[in-house]
Amino acid sequence: MKNITPAADLDPATFRPCGECALCCKALPIHGSQDLDKPAGKWCRHWANSTGCKIYENREEVCRTFFCLWKINALPEELAPLKTKCVLAIYKEGVLIVYVDPSYPTAWKEGRMGSYLTVWSERFMIEVGKQRSWVHPVTGLHVSRWRVTPVGETINVKEILG
Ligand code: SF4
Ligand code: SF4
To answer: Cα(40)–Cα(52) distance, rounded to whole angstroms?
Structure first.
């Protein structure tokens, strides 16, 4: 995670507690020191089910400064990563990225999260483990809610709609 959510201007006192959630320690790619370099979708080597982050007090900057959109109160309560299996963040360029727990690869399309993303008007990125895709919102009859293309490819939504 190089990112992300512009937390510098936010008041940490308004942040939600992570509670039992630790999904960012699994769903996100994290590139810190040599000791902390993990791909998306794999639990961090410092994570233990029984104790949580084993180096919490000394965790690296990259971990200390990541705050998902739910944590900073930018999403409704029901979109908590623990419930939706999705971690949402905004990159500096303003692009929404949705990191999905690979144990639930279609979670982003389902339930409350699916409804939320349906009304997202810009393209956004989905990352499920090593798989990264652009998702293009599509509106209109007889078409699906989204078109999904690999990162690097673009599509013309007008062509799809005819
Ligand atoms: S995904 Fe969000 S709520 Fe969950 S541990 Fe990470 S920052 Fe906290
Ligand atoms: S070092 Fe700790 S906080 Fe950082 S990703 Fe690993 S388990 Fe999570």
So the answer is: 18
What's the CA-to-centroid distance between 145 and ligand 2, angstroms? 35
What mean pLDDT, rounded, does the chain reach?
85
- Give me the residue spans of the domains in the chain: 21-161
Nearest ligand to the CA of 98 is 1
CB-ligand 2 contact for 157 (6 Å cutoff): no
pLDDT per position as a tens digit, 54-69: 999 999 999 999 999 9
* Gap from CA of 74 to ligand 2 centroid (Å): 23
Which ligand minimizes its atom distance to the CA of 30?
2
d(CA 146, CA 19): 32
Is the pLDDT score of 85 beyond 80? yes
> Looking at this protein, which amino acid is placed at residue 45?
R
